[in-house]
Design a protein that fits this description.
globular, mainly alpha
Length: 114
């Protein structure tokens, strides 16, 4: 799955993330798209390729909660040596985006109505 890096700078992506349906798992692709839109334009294509690779590794379309520090590190080790440092930096930045933006909390279904 490829992510289409957006070139729009006038969209506010700080709104609380929401799954497509209240009972559906939040998808990694949804968070990746929001992350890419917050990245510098010059970095989007490279980062989109790495995130698409991560999504495929996790079984695209992967639920967001399939990505953990351990699964991210396992994916990073599958990459060619020349890409591993960039992938490590991406994972660190992406994880901070997920945590600080409330994506990880929103992906955990708690207090759902019966």
């Amino acid at each position: 799955m490829a992510f289409a890096p957006s070139h729009s700078a006038d969209t506010d992506h700080r709104a609380a993330p929401q799954p497509a349906h209240p009972l559906a798992p939040m998808r990694l692709a949804q968070a990746a798209q929001a992350y890419l839109e917050s990245c510098p334009v010059s970095e989007r294509v490279r980062r989109a390729g790495l995130l698409a690779s991560l999504d495929e590794y996790l079984g695209a379309p992967a639920p967001l909660l399939a990505y953990t520090k351990l699964t991210g590190e396992a994916w990073r080790r599958t990459l060619p040596a020349a890409e591993q440092d960039d992938a490590g930096a991406l994972l660190s930045d992406f994880r901070a985006f997920l945590r600080d933006g409330g994506w990880l909390d929103a992906a955990r279904a708690v207090n759902l109505p019966d």
